[in-house]
């Protein structure tokens, strides 16, 4: 007891510190790292990761996890694009893709809330099913290109506004809206309450099951937005991304920023710090010509260090577990 | 009698904040020594230092004359000090014998030998526990026997019990006391953290009282009585305040009928339970654990899941109700204040004001979907003042508070929901003595304001002292009703166990 407030450093601060140190080291040792252009590109490269991470953080705060985000992102947007390329009206195509994402979110929510399957298994299975379903029924090719006819939609992922890349602005908007939802709405309060103590939330009169469904609808929505931003940034949607380690990177940035996997703790800020950290790291390593496999070693090591540092500074000893009874 | 343990000037600090300060404590060989004090007085810390769970910051501990500082519980155990924790440390999926020999497995584990050895051990202690039984199937008392057997097998010279009787029924408590006697007869020295004063007075040879981390008193229990101990615990005489004589108290008349439960059944826990609750008075329900009183309240308040709901009817103000989730009950004005606030009471990661406000939001009392922070602040200010919650400010985390203040926050979280019918399940469990009186006062005020209040308790003086009607629950149903004037401890207990 009494210690929660006093604990010297949170994981969030540690990670922020690590990001600053890394930034300084790269800035001194790599030519061209400390240019405005490079710094913007750091953020731009990870903005999609940040959007997905924000959604993941939201589901982890509610004591869940959504491993299907990458599949949902890839196939909902790929379907939208391929329908549009086959002369479906843009708005209808967007509606189809979004509807598909929501349907997956709804199924996830029902599986988890009403059939009581652990979130990690339910979404792992549904992610695989979505990938298979998408390949078989929705899109014919692995890569679906964006035609210029999408018009202004293009600007959510590419181009700049006042010198800032639009994908970064998209991240900022998603993060801002999510922050508002988490801290200023009834939904957000319910989510924190559920993640903190599901039974207490239920007894207090919070609609726990409908909330869980809403939570997975929201992560699916964010996945769809992330997919659109990606597609507009690189002018295509490569569905092979479902076979990549992207989903682990998404969890990485949420966890590294200090979102507690046990639920109820953390916020959007943690994700942004995690995103900056990973962005700096990836950019620096790429500029040093480090091979992709070696980068994975570094990412894994960094995650471990962050977790070890957290348990060192905020030990889960009898004090934290006994809570209030010295 | 010679001393087996002597602690001199022991201080334990958690990051600079002392949990116990300069405490002296001695344990004689073969004695039963009770440690008493309010929550947060430092009882657990003291025993944990002895058992090697934590280490002291200053001071010295002498065990059989040698200075010791155990780094781990295993080291303490090797020296002969065993601790039996409140949350028991058995492996539920294993058999009794496997648990007794846990941590002592050889590479080729001969189970047959273990069962025979365990049976002999149980026999020598006179414990009626089947070594083949799965621990998950045992009751609380038998689990405790297994833990004790484990400590005895490890040749413990000192056994420390952390609130051993908290989860036991009166019969099991009586049995536990006979176990203590048997251990004592074998020459084992015993320290136990007590929570009921009468029990400690009955079983202990000597009693030590701690207050705010400091040693207040150690004396032979023959020289002490309830009043002296309470005074030492809180620093002032409170027992009269808390348990005022019933004759001096006005008994509230029943108001309109609020809730009527008819033939409620659920499995074999609640059987054809029928009773009525009136507005403007406190209905006390006394019953032992397992008598179906908590489950009945939970069914009425929608907390118990409906699929276990087997039959019967519940009427609120004459209207038939049947809730699937607590949300519906909360919106109709029925709240259930839990007996276990850590598990279903408050939210650890939230501040006092967020906890209280969450109750308000969950009852659908906010307008629209957007939270108003000024509303949250006002609510928190009002309720922490009304309930006298002692905290630095309303942004403090609930986990930082004492048990009594946590309970007040949990109560406030339910009261902001504007209930008509309030179930308090063990409202003063794990609450420090000072706060008990305040909570009782608060419950009385609620009844005076016209709420229908139900207090479930397995502590007789509490039920007898605050209730305007006393219902006794036994074997899944209310079996007897007393007025406070006709109720005696004996009559109530008789109804509850027969």
From TrEMBL, chain A:
It is a multi-pass membrane protein. One of its GO terms (molecular function) is transmembrane transporter activity. It is found in: Cell membrane. One of its GO terms (cellular component) is plasma membrane. Keywords: Cell inner membrane, Cell membrane, Membrane, Transmembrane, Transmembrane helix, Transport. This is ABC transporter permease. It comes from the Bacteria. Its main location: membrane. The chain crosses the membrane at residues 12-30, 36-58, 65-84, 90-112, 119-138, 168-192, 213-234, 246-264, 271-290. It comes from Seohaeicola zhoushanensis.
Automatic annotation (TrEMBL), chain B:
CDD domains: ABC_Carb_Monos_I (cd03216), ABC_Carb_Monos_II (cd03215). Gene3D superfamilies: P-loop containing nucleotide triphosphate hydrolases (3.40.50.300). Transmembrane segments: none annotated. It comes from the Bacteria. Keywords: ATP-binding, Nucleotide-binding, Repeat, Sugar transport, Transport. It holds the Pfam family ABC_tran. GO terms for molecular function: ATP binding; ATP hydrolysis activity. Residues 5-237, 251-497 form the ABC transporter domain. SUPFAM superfamilies: P-loop containing nucleoside triphosphate hydrolases (SSF52540). The keyword Transport applies. This is ABC transporter ATP-binding protein. It comes from Seohaeicola zhoushanensis.
